[in-house]
User: Which sequence fits this backbone?
């Protein structure tokens, strides 16, 4: 699943994608990029985007990327389990900064193997420790939905073992859309991590279908049931967005939407709610940010439920 509002992503390839989804050109910023340099790269993408009408999308080429500084995750070392040259997800969110999900077929081509992931992580953790740059969080994110990796449960076991051995104070976080929670091995693996950050953008199924464009076989009620089975041991993340798509109004921050969403939040009882809005280009035009003051007002209503909340504007 794509990142959640990092201001920049060191070590990330920035690709221009055409409307047909073809990657036109990639820029690879250096891995230890500073904030001004990262802005320079973002400007280059924006300039090219304005000039030749391409959208900037963010794809991770490396298995281990960063670290990046995140308000929510601290010094976060990222892990991308998806292929490095395309997005791979069971959703196709209309705001996804990785661009559109490809058509498939989804075979195992391009996934890094379990031993390769473990070796890459071990090497990076040892290097970071030697430089006294220990991560606060090891975060599974990247070019789509990490739980789609066929060896996801084994990779989580390896990551827990490496964390315990090398950086025992670090947390492990997974950014997921929850669609694989039906699989008992994925469900049990997610119970081993410190922060399951699960996306629900609306309490209304029709809004989820519009915003997240789930694949065939998706059941909204099953997703909610599966999250309930976590017994509150998860973090809920909701992206608020406003605009139009395919001639339809998009607004999951309207008063009616928020009322229904707050009821759902109360029922699910997460450890924390992360409220944010779009930060970069989206695959469709016509979408805009929800203003910061509205996000803070939504957050205040979450706090009244006795649930902690973080806002990223
Ligand atoms: S869940 Fe949505 S935002 Fe996240 S990677 Fe998939 S399509 Fe992109």
Assistant:
């Amino acid at each position: 699943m794509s990142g959640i509002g990092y201001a920049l992503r060191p070590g990330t390839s920035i690709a221009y994608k055409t409307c047909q989804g073809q990657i036109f050109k990639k820029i690879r910023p250096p891995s230890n990029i500073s904030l001004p340099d990262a802005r320079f790269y973002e400007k280059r993408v924006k300039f090219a985007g304005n000039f030749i009408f391409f959208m900037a999308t963010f794809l991770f080429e490396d298995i281990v990327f960063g670290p990046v500084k995140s308000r929510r995750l601290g010094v976060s070392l990222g892990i991308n389990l998806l292929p490095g040259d395309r997005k791979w997800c069971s959703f196709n969110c209309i705001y996804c900064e990785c661009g559109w999900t490809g058509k498939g077929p989804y075979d195992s081509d391009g996934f890094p193997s379990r031993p390769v992931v473990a070796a890459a992580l071990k090497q990076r953790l040892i290097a970071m420790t030697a430089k006294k740059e220990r991560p606060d969080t090891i975060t599974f994110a990247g070019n789509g939905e990490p739980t789609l990796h066929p060896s996801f449960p084994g990779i989580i076991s390896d990551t827990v073992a490496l964390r315990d051995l090398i950086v025992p104070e670090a947390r492990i976080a997974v950014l997921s859309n929850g669609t694989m929670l039906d699989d008992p091995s994925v469900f049990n693996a997610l119970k081993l991590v410190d922060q399951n950050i699960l996306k629900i953008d609306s309490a209304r199924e029709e809004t989820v279908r519009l915003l997240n464009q789930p694949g065939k076989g998706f059941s909204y009620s099953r997703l909610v049931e599966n999250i309930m089975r976590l017994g509150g041991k998860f973090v809920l993340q909701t992206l608020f967005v406003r605009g139009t798509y395919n001639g339809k109004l998009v607004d999951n921050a309207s008063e009616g939407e928020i009322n229904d969403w707050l009821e759902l939040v109360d029922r699910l009882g997460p450890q924390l709610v992360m409220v944010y809005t779009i930060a970069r280009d989206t695959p469709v035009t016509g979408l805009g940010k929800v203003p910061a003051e509205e996000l803070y007002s939504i957050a205040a209503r979450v706090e009244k439920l006795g649930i902690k909340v973080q806002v990223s504007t």
